[in-house]
Amino acid sequence: MVKLLKPSGGSSGPEYADDVPYAAVSALQSKYDYLLLVYNAGFHGSSRAAGGPAGGSRGRTDAADSSRQSTKAPVNRQSPPPVLQGYVGIIDHKPLKMHCRSCSLVTSSGHLTGSGRGDEIDRAECVIRMNDAPTAHGYGADVGHRTSLRVIAHSSMQRVLRSRHELLNASQDTVFIFWGPSSYMRRDGKGLVYNNLRLMNQVLPKLKVYIISWQKMLQFDELFKRETGKDRRISNSWLSTGWFTMTIALDLCDRINVYGMVAPDHCRDPRHPSVPYHYYEPRGPDECAMYISHERGRRGSHHRFITEKTVFAGWAQTFDIHFYQPSWEPPSRTPGNRTLGATGGKVLVAPAGGPRQNT
Predict the structure, then answer these.
(1) Would you say the C-alpha torsion 280, 286, 292, 296 has a positive or negative sign?
(2) 3-class SS at 203?
């Protein structure tokens, strides 16, 4: 049983989704507030393992954006979706069933600001986003309004709860996949994130909440090692939410259009534009400064953003992956036949230093 910390005063806030009875609003609000208190108490002092800075401003407002949000994607009626092992329902423990012919994978990069790509992004069958990246408050014209899948790091859960009215209540058709270290996801009552995800799903039972199993997490680690030659633990590396999102997209999607991801050598160009790490934090850290700092970091744990993008560029030589805003293509290389790893039904093969191809 999850123990709740009872606040001293009452709570109030905007109403929840239309299908929640008015009489239950205050109870739901209170449970949400309890959940935030539990998470704050348990997470305080823990090391941040993923995601970007928690601060920043979402200064623009546009009330019409919220009403325009729609998470319903075109339905593929040709065949039932395949079972994807490794993504487990938080309540029923059943595996995820999902397939998309085309996907827009939307990063959180400042390169998306002013892009006007929103309609283009929303035309894909599925739209994939990361952590608490917003679509309301005027951002929809650049990043789209729909969300089919949201991949969330355990360290971003607190920010998602704070933005619950936008990200949760208006997202009844969205699939949420949370990832985190096994100590936070354990099911014996001691997993902080797991416990709070179950509570959240009890408060909003229509939410489609999944976690990445520890077996799948080990596969992601092994895939990183095989693709880069680096052991994640020995090199003090934390896989980024971008890594998980791209590999999950390979499981789900036939074609992937990635928006806002730069080429691996982008930050080496002294003429590269300065953009914020997150489009919704315009005064936040510079994207390239963040990438370079993490890539060179040796003390403590760091994301290897540039290394990951080098891997993605290799995958794009084989799979139907395309990059926009900025637009770029990976260099062509000669195919080979050494198996490096597997993602879903896609087998990644290549010679040493060579590209990947489907087999």
Answers:
(1) negative
(2) helix
pTM for the full model? Answer: 0.74
Look up residue 96 and give its two tokens: 């995820």
Per-residue model confidence (pLDDT) at position 31 = 46
User: Which residue from 250, 223, 225, 219 is spatially nearest to 346, judged by alpha carbons?
Assistant: 250
Cα 302 from chain centroid (whole Å): 17
Q: Does residue 86 sit within a domain?
A: yes
**Whole-angstrom distance, CA of residue 234 vs CA of residue 296:** 15
**Coil, strand, or helix at residue 219?**
helix
DSSP string, 11-67: -------TTS-GGGHHHHHHHHHHHHHHHHHHHTTPPP-SSS-S--------HHHHH
- Tell me if 163 is assigned to some domain: yes
Structurally, the chain folds into a number of domains equal to 1
Residue 38 domain flag:
no
Rounded to 10°, the helix 214-228/241-252 angle is 100
Collapsed DSSP state (helix, strand, coil) of residue 359: coil
Residue 248 domain-assigned? yes
Say how many CA atoms lie within 13 Å of 248 toward its Cβ.
34
Sorted by sequence, the CB contacts under 8 Å of residue 235 that are 6+ apart come out as 304
Take residue 347 and report the two structure tokens written for it. 């087998």
- What are the φ and ψ backbone dihedral angles of 170, each rounded to 5 degrees? -95, 15
Q: Output the six-digit token pair for 305.
A: 């953003």
The per-residue pLDDT for range 79-121, each reduced to its tens digit, is 788 999 999 999 999 999 999 999 999 999 999 999 999 999 9
pLDDT per residue as tens digits for the range 315-347: 999 999 999 999 999 987 545 433 334 455 554
Sequence-distant (≥ 6) Cβ neighbours of residue 50 within 8 angstroms: 153, 154, 155, 156, 179, 180, 238, 239, 240, 241, 303
Pairing of strands 346-349, 175-179: unpaired
The CATH number for 266's domain is 3.90.1480
Q: Angle 305-316/241-252 helices, nearest 10 degrees?
A: 20
d(CA 101, CA 329): 21
Q: Domain residues for 141?
A: 68-333
Selection from 304, 90, 110, 306 nearest residue 180 by Cα = 90
The helix/strand/coil state of 198 is helix
Give the 3-state secondary structure of residue 252.
helix
